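Complex 173.
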Amino acid sequence: MRVGVVALQGDFAEHESWLRAAGHEVWEIRRPQDVAPGGRPPDMLVFPGGESTVQRKLLADLELAEPLGELVDGGVEVLATCAGLILLAKQVDGRDNPWGRLDVSVRRNAYGRQLGSFVGGDRVFIRAPAIESVGPTVEVLSELDGKPVAVRQGAIRAYCYHPELVWAHNRRL
Ligand code: GLN
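Predicted structure with glutamine bound:
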């Protein structure tokens, strides 16, 4: 696949390494002209982990919110981890998130400490959001203690944990 990674802040480089190793063509999106280079939009968009408040501000300041929102609305595959899930959630900490597209309500900083912790052996939670409720079109892919931690709505897949860090960790073993 041709994958555009939103590379404004956070662990975009780990997502890039992971997806490149899996054989995908990967580039970084930092400016509006990176969204569809040569007029070719990506097959998949990645919203990495990091700090959602900073990422949300940069999306707006760098004029990426609108073109990326249009791609998501057009049905591009989306992979969102942690802060990426927060960006896409329609409700964050009890408030409406105007840019949100994913029908979930999240609470920020619900799981894990700053330096991260392995939970369940294969899922890494780093100050991760909890998914408190999901809408009728949202499928739960994975749970922790009875709460959803990975969800899918159409072409959007979103994770509270960090699959890219598990990949990086396993590769170092
Ligand atoms: N705590 C961060 C936030 O609220 C998310 C943490 C992460 O992406 N690992 O945006």
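DSSP finds five helices and 13 strands in the chain.
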